């Protein structure tokens, strides 16, 4: 009985140690495979957005440009990018331009309106879809983005990535790793016989939808039938006669999951060895367990050290690639932040006269009270000094509030998005601009809801948006006989709407179309460089919102900013 207990303890502990060791290795390997997959996707994820902004593509979709010219542009871009294909669809889903226009498998003239990525982007979202190409018969990942003109979606840009090289690298590695989509279909795998198999049998509705989307044309989508649902994290599963430890992780930005499987045969083999040794030499079981434990720990340490060096080397290479590909994005982000800061400093310079006047008044009053106090002291009337000192203290607090507003406004943005009350941001902007409003005799009207209007934003940058729009309104009313600024804060569906209107002369239609383009300005030379509204547009887009300008029937112009309400407030 004691010998049996010793055998059971030895077998059980050996199995647990082996599983723990394999799980640690599996977690590190899964992280590496996840990084390599995301790096391969992120390399091209920006491409549709960049192409959607090009005027040749927009003109071709709108019908005012040449589709062949757009195809030549797509061909040139894709030659540099190295994707499988880059193409443009109109609102009906018809391909009007493609990088492979001059090949036998050209997409031009093909209708892809049945693809989910087309409908996702037509609704204003990024499309993300894996399937077998109906034109080429080659599988790939399709990433799409909408093409907009005047805030209207007029088409879709799509890039197709073929991940065959990545999949081949996985197969050459000799490990068991695969990716499954939301339906449980295996799309990428190191085991060729598992390609397009499913983790569980598909329902009739799922099969009908996949067939309708023509996602896996010609594939039976037979199930591996693992026997139950796989939860996120780790565990064990059986595929046929094979037993595996698994680690699974959701891939950010998609509904895919990546799996790393480790065969249980190593665990079983080690348990058998320990059992044999304990049966032959049960009297030495404790010494053998200690020896094996020390040996296993040493081997595990060596393997972990080697694995760490390998992972560190691969991570270094991946980081270099990712850093290079994100360099442009970081430079653009840095440029925007510098423009925001420069805009704030320029605004402070333009408002300096009004602010100086606001500070000079309390300074003059302080001088008067100080002179009066001096006379009281000379005449021995010190009992009346309290009132003078109280007045001086009140005036210094007023000056401190003004300089505090300047210090707060001139600070740099941290870049961190957090819950922000739009009413508080507007109050801060108006406090800073109040001297200029008074100097220019501008009447202010505010109409807003009583409740807080919370948005996910950066307080510094949302204040800059308010300041930019209000200052533009003041500049527009410079020659108006009656200056009135009206600010309305309302909600509609799940958005906060801020409308800022003026009594200026309004804007020409040509100016409205180019208002948010960089370096476009309607001001006289030397009065501006045309970056304020462009930066404002970028900030609002970063916060998931939109901005537009239009002329009002009653006269003057109106800027309308829409920002998503926080979920807690919309629920």
From TrEMBL:
Query: Which GO terms of the cellular component aspect does the record hold?
Result: plasma membrane
Reaction catalysis annotation:
ATP + protein L-histidine = ADP + protein N-phospho-L-histidine
The answer to keyword Thylakoid applying to this record is no
Q: Which domain of life is it from?
A: Bacteria
Residues in domain Histidine kinase? 354-567
Q: Where in the cell is it found?
A: Cell inner membrane
Give membrane topology per the record: Multi-pass membrane protein
Keyword Cell inner membrane (UniProt)? yes
Cross-referenced Gene3D superfamilies, in alphabetical order?
1.10.287.130, 6.10.250.3020, Histidine kinase-like ATPase, C-terminal domain, PAS domain
State the protein's purpose: Member of the two-component regulatory system DctB/DctD involved in the transport of C4-dicarboxylates. DctB functions as a membrane-associated protein kinase that phosphorylates DctD in response to environmental signals.
| One GO MF term attached to the UniProt entry | ATP binding
Question: Which UniProt key words apply to this protein?
Answer: ATP-binding, Cell inner membrane, Cell membrane, Coiled coil, Kinase, Membrane, Nucleotide-binding, Phosphoprotein, Transferase, Transmembrane, Transmembrane helix, Two-component regulatory system
Cited CDD domains: HisKA, PDC1_DGC_like
Give the protein name, as stated in the record: C4-dicarboxylate transport sensor protein DctB
Chain segments annotated as coiled-coil in the UniProt record = 311-345
What broad taxonomic lineage does this protein's source fall under? Bacteria, Pseudomonadati, Pseudomonadota, Alphaproteobacteria, Rhodospirillales
Name the Enzyme Commission number(s) assigned to this protein.
Answer: 2.7.13.3
For this UniProt entry, which segments traverse the membrane?
272-292
């Amino acid at each position: 009985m004691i010998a049996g207990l010793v055998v059971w303890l030895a077998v059980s502990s050996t199995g647990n140690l082996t599983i723990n060791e394999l799980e640690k290795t599996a977690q590190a390997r899964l992280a590496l495979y996840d990084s390599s997959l995301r790096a391969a996707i992120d390399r091209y994820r920006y491409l549709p957005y960049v192409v959607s902004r090009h005027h040749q593509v927009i003109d071709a979709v709108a019908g005012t440009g040449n589709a062949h010219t757009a195809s030549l542009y797509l061909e040139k871009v894709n030659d540099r990018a190295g994707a499988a294909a880059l193409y443009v669809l109109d609102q009906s889903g018809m391909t009007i331009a493609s990088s492979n226009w001059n090949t036998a498998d050209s997409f031009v003239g093909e209708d892809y309106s049945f693809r989910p990525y087309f409908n996702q982007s037509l609704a204003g979202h990024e499309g993300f879809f894996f399937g077998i190409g109906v034109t080429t018969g080659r599988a790939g990942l399709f990433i799409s983005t909408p093409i907009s003109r005047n805030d209207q979606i007029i088409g879709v840009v799509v890039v197709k990535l073929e991940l065959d090289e990545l999949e081949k690298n996985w197969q050459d590695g000799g490990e068991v790793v695969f990716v499954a989509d939301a339906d449980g279909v295996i799309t990428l795998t190191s085991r060729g016989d598992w390609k397009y198999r499913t983790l569980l049998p598909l329902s009739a509705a799922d099969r009908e939808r996949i067939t309708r989307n023509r996602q896996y044309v010609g594939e039976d989508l037979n199930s591996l039938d693992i026997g139950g649902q796989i939860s996120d994290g780790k565990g064990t599963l059986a595929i046929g006669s094979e037993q595996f430890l698994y680690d699974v992780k959701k891939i950010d930005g998609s509904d895919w999951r990546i799996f790393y499987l480790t065969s249980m045969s190593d665990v079983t083999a080690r348990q058998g060895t320990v059992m044999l040794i304990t049966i032959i030499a049960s009297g030495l079981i404790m010494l053998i367990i200690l020896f094996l434990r020390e040996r296993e720990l040493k081997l595990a340490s060596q393997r972990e050290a080697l694995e760490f060096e390998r992972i560190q080397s691969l991570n270094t290479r991946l980081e270099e690639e990712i850093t290079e590909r994100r360099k442009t994005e970081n430079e653009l982000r840095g440029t925007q932040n510098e423009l925001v800061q420069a805009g704030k400093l320029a605004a402070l310079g333009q408002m300096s006269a009004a602010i100086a006047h606001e500070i000079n008044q309390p300074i003059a009053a302080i001088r008067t009270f100080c002179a009066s106090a001096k006379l009281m002291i000379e005449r021995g009337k010190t009992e009346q000094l309290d009132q003078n000192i109280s007045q001086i203290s009140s005036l210094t607090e007023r000056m401190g509030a003004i300089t505090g507003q300047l210090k707060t406004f001139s600070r740099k943005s941290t870049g961190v998005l957090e819950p922000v009350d739009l009413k508080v941001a507007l109050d801060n902007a108006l406090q800073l601009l109040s001297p200029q409003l008074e100097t220019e005799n501008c009447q202010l009207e505010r109409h807003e809801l009583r409740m807080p209007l919370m948005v996910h934003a950066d307080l510094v940058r949302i204040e800059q948006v308010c300041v930019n729009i209000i200052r533009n309104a003041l500049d527009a009313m410079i020659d108006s006989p009656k200056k009135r600024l009206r600010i309305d804060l309302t909600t509609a569906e799940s958005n906060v709407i801020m409308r800022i209107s003026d009594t200026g002369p309004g804007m020409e239609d040509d100016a409205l179309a180019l208002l948010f383009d960089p370096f476009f300005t309607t001001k006289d030379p030397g009065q501006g460089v045309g970056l304020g509204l462009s930066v404002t547009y970028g900030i609002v887009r970063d916060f998931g919102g939109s901005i537009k300008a239009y002329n009002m029937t009653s006269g003057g112009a109106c800027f309308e900013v829409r920002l998503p309400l926080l979920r807690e407030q919309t629920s």
